[in-house]
Amino acid sequence: MRKIAILLIMAASTATAQPSGMEILEKVLDVMNPPNAQAIITQTIQTTSGQTRTFEYDSYMGDKGEKSLMRYRLPSRVRGNAILMTGFSDNIWMYIKRTGRVRKLASHAKKQKFEGSDFTYEDMGSGESWKEDYAPKNLGISKLKGGECYLLELRAVADDLSYSKLVCHVRTEDYYPLQIDYYDETGTHTKVLHLENIQVIEGIPTAMKMVMENLVDRTSTGMETIEITYDVTFDDDFFTERNLKKR
Known about the structure:
Order of helices and strands: HHEEEEEEHHEEEEEEEH
Number of strands: 13
Number of helices: 5
CATH superfamily: Lipoprotein localisation LolA/LolB/LppX
Strand content: over 45%
CATH topology: outer membrane lipoprotein receptor (LolB), chain A
Distance between the termini: 75 Å
Oligomer: single chain
CATH architecture: Clam
Mean pLDDT: 91
């Protein structure tokens, strides 16, 4: 009887055992950063006055988010403008079609707002860098939007990062995040990213809508995916300064 009791305790312990923070983070990054992607995305910025500005652009992502290129389609005044990021947003170039010039931004630009939105350049292109920049910890199970989630805390390992901490609500069923909370250098909760309308596209869970809510400025930015494919490859010179000027 004692052996049976021990076996039952061991079985219950195994059943309730949870993955470590690093195991959760690695699975989140796997599902969020497929090798390549190509999409058409609309971005709508709601200002403090309640006005909205809407953009549409082609988005290309390579090497699991290490490289990305965005080329604007609408409105007409920015059509043809493009942004290239490499090194998980450590390197940023901008091309302005009107002047025909390519300009590299300073290294601190990754912390700035992406085209006036509530996303920073770092938010747009951080990718796999989370594994080096943050220490993960599994805080247990939480409930969000009627589903069961792992509560994953990511604490910054260096003082020069944009955020001191991130808290991710990660679905237990497929390790896809439903919400990410951002805390600035002082520990203030400044932003919330909501991931919505999650669909399985070519076998990959995909948030067709994302809304970044700025709790300080009381503004928000929505990004909706019009179409997307992961079945795409890019030439070696695609994510380069020269390719920024191509139409």
